Amino acid sequence: MDDICLNQTGDMAAMLLCFPHLQDSCPRFVRLTIVRVVMYAFMVITILMTVCGNLLVIISITHFKQLHSPTNFILRSLAVVDCCLGCFVMPFSMVRSVEGCWYMGENFCKVHSSLDMMLCTTSILHLCLVSIDRYYAICDPLQYSTKVTVFKVISGTIIIWLFSFLFCFGVVFSGVNMVGLETFILMTYCEGSCALFFNKEWGIIAPTVSFYIPAAVMTCLYIKIFHVARKHAKVMSDRLATVTCSELKNQASEQRERKAAKTLAIVMGVFLLCWLPFFITTLIDPFVNFQTPFHIFDAVMWFAYFNSTCNPVIYAFFYPHFRKAFKIIIAKISGMRTNTHILVVE
């Protein structure tokens, strides 16, 4: 009877391993089928929204010459970053999140981790570059055309891409982030895992470079932009004093202030909501002996990914000229599908 129980237990354990034929395999997550289906559906929808939304931005800015401006070139580069994240990082992270297993091998795990870290850093730095562009456009409009040129914007985006690549791939492939953690990694390693650990030093350095410094710059600039926008609204209201009644002036001024406050609140609110939990967890985890549960770390990671889904909405859909471009592109695609359908029927 005991032998039968042992055999049943062994068979059950084998079914729940990432690689049942390996003794050092990681265990798989035990989830109800409906839970797995819902998770896959949600993540696939998020990935499709990320890729399609950012593709619309890329096509619009590339195709329509009216959208060729320094600001929009930053947005196009940002859309390329977020589209790459949706194509090359999020699908593999989805399988790992749902199944709890990494099936692509150790070498690709390093590439995936490096690419994930690089694209997230690049996306954040692009958002910081957008805030710098908006600062000059609103706070120093007379000098904007000389201070912000297409050449400077393209140079800035290239520097961001190169810096992010060298920094992130350098950290992961050099292994400096795991110095002092060799014993811990050997004790916890199993076949089918793909986790990026940071020691205490790099647990501070990496988040600071990738997030905290750009976030501080963005916060300061957007606060300054908000105050300047309010002053501009007040000045415009005063200039209209001779031609409009005071009530209309106040209403127009208040509307402009509310619009500026709303836009900046959405920009910073979504950015901080998506990224802050992830980088707080990354910063704290090395100091609590990596006790953060996988499910929590996974959840905050997908919150961070979701920022790439929101970027096209925040930085493009709010502008009427982008909405018109999107409508034209979608109409053309729909027309092509309709014509193809008619040809097939005929």
Task: Indicate the topology.
Elements: H1 2-15, H2 33-63, H3 70-88, H4 90-99, H5 106-139, H6 144-147, H7 150-174, H8 182-188, H9 200-239, H10 246-284, H11 294-317, H12 320-345
Helix pairs in contact: 2-3, 2-4, 2-11, 2-12, 3-5, 3-7, 3-11, 5-7, 5-9, 9-10, 10-11
Pfam family, one: 7tm_1
Keywords: Cell membrane, Disulfide bond, G-protein coupled receptor, Glycoprotein, Membrane, Receptor, Transducer, Transmembrane, Transmembrane helix
Domain G-protein coupled receptors family 1 profile: 53-315
CATH topology term of the largest domain: Rhopdopsin 7-helix transmembrane proteins
Instruction: Give the overall shape, derived from the CA principal axes.
Output: globular
Largest beta-sheet details: none
Radius of gyration: 25 Å
CATH class of the largest domain: Mainly Alpha
Q: What is the strand tally?
A: 0
- Low-pLDDT parts are 1-14, 340-346
CATH 4th-level superfamily of the largest domain: Rhodopsin 7-helix transmembrane proteins
Our count of domains comes out at: 2
Order of helices and strands: HHHHHHHHHHHH
Secondary-structure class? mainly alpha
CATH architecture field of the largest domain: Up-down Bundle
The percentage of residues in β strands lies in: under 5%
Helix content: over 70%
Please report the distance between the alpha carbons of the first and last residues: 70 Å
Quickly count the helices. Answer: 12
Q: On the 0-100 scale, what is the average pLDDT?
A: 84
